[in-house]
Write a structure and sequence with these properties.
The chain is α/β, with parallel strands linked by helices. It has nine helices and seven strands; from the N terminus they run H-E-H-E-H-E-H-E-H-E-E-H-E-H-H-H.
Amino acid sequence: MGFSLSTGGRAVEAGTGECENSRTMATANHSAPRQCWHVVVPIKDTRLGKSRLAPAGVERTRLSRAIAEDTLAAVTQAVGPGQVWLVTSDEGLASRWLARGVHVVGDPGTGLNAAIAAGLDRVPLGSPRAVLLGDLPSLTGVDLVAALDAGGDGAEWFVPDLDGSGTVLRAGRSFVPRFGPGSADAHAAQGARRLELDLPRLRRDVDDPGSLAAAVQLGVGPATSAALQLAGAERSSALDG
């Protein structure tokens, strides 16, 4: 990869200074979580992601990037950039968020759970940690804070997607990620508590035109909204031409 990672090696012992600085930044718009959470966000190279969105008539790379941007913006609003660990092979995305204070970890390229494990491996030892999927364009910082506070850091827990079979958020001090098809059952089988939270903006992941339409009904972030508006303008221009 052509960018410089913000950290190297394995995790170190947790310190309080960086956490307090990040929490101060997070409270600019709303309350920070009660605990000092580190959040790992795996995001596939946006040139390769969201292949099932192509039928929606939206340029796929642009939309994938916009969804990632809105998700990361919500996470940094919730916990502060210094508590966010972006795992990706997307150099453009990595460079932008590294400049904003987010930690960047290179994606090893061996699947989603391997990418998540690479990010978890860099989180300071003993810290509350969570994994959030990167395809949540409706997510707000307030909703993520609510979920983190509802779960707490005393036990393992997860939040399923709105369909009930997948997982959008997995948390605990030490756990093995089991994301992918049927991940809700897989995480429950590990003993993690299932939280059916009334937070549709958190639980609405986007994989296809139907879920994208549902996210739009909930409201999406500015990057996703702009990408969809541009796609609409391009379609209108093509029809007029």
